[in-house]
Amino acid sequence: MTYMLDISVVVPLYNEDESLIELVHWIDKVMLENAYSYEVILVDDGSTDNSWSVVENLNQQFPSVKGIRFRRNYGKSAALHSAFQKVVGRVVITMDADLQDSPDEIPGLFKMVVDEKFDLVSGWKKKRHDPLGKTIPSKFFNSVTRRISKIDLNDFNCGLKAYRLEVVKAIEVYGEMHRYIPLLAKWAGFYKIGEKVVEHRARKFGVSKFGFERFLNGFLDLMSITFMGKFSKSPMHFFGSLGTLLFGIGFVSAAYLGIRKLIFMYQGYLLMKLTDNPFFYLSLTCMILGTQLFLAGFISELVSRSSGRSNEYGILKMVGLTDDNTEVI
Question: CA 236 → CA 11, 103, 288, 305, distances in Å?
């Protein structure tokens, strides 16, 4: 594959007008020292300060600086997705705009992708300059994510990451899924995921834009992406299996109660009515829920099969055939 540039740097930003000039000059210095051809895509996520004016001025000063401006604040995932559609560098590097990520890490990340053939390299802020109210929940979040995803990373949410161009073109980042780009890459078939200890610098300007609610949203997003990765092509396997299990439990329980009632009646014992037994209603509830889950799986399967994307797969290479998005050998 022919690449137009060595590196594409993607920087999502929201109200970071104080740090942008220093950040771009720093990136340019690192690129010139290492003789990299590069572009910087600054994505203004609906800033209400002078960030966009700064981006326009930087574009006049540095031809390699490009900008995307949203009408309103859509979130980091939307910013990354929009930039990923435009990047053309052999290696794509993402970093935050607040100067807490050091551009001096770029050469090391680039070499890991190019020389060591990693698909994705995630930064690890081993020594953080954040308050305990942020670091402790972050460690817990990373521990749970590592166990569920089976990806051995210590800092999933680090904004400083490096990717092969093919990776960002193969994944779709939406909602708040930027936290789980390594998992998205894994589901897309990119398994060589590495980690590099990076410098985490103290915030120089402004304040953090993230609140505590992101950790709750993060776990919900993890459940969502895990489900989509495993069952998006076959939702009936999940809903149908769970529905069948619940219906079976309810049916067996109800049959047991009915047979037990008949046996005791035959032996001359008096028992309460089935409708007076709370276990009867639990059994009935299980059968109803099981039926609903089974139908939900059936309907989801119909929707999936008629969506037009049910047979889209990540094709790595082809021989004797051509496709606009596939490398041909």
Answer: 40, 46, 17, 11
